[in-house]
Amino acid sequence: xxxxxxxVLMSSLVAGxxxxxxxxxxxxxxxxxxxxxxxxxxxxxxxxxxxxxxxxxxxxVGAIxxxxxxHSMDESDRKKEEAxxxxxxxxxxxxxxxxxx
Length: 101
What we know:
Blueprint: H1 2-18, H2 23-45, H3 51-92
Helix pairs in contact: 1-2, 2-3
């Protein structure tokens, strides 16, 4: 049990330190690590020693959940950036596209 949890935890830390270019990728990595840890603990505590199976299920569920949350954050950031760009453009150009300032 401890060996599997240690391997999963170390793998998650290494993958998390490498990171991704999007919040969806980072969320998937963090979610997989946290889910694997929680799943391994729950699987071990069922009394039948299903640590590995619990860790795998937890990693899958955590990765999906983390990716969905991260994707939502990426979309929110994209919309904010788009709104900021539009606002900056509107301040500097008139309706015909001529520079005001």
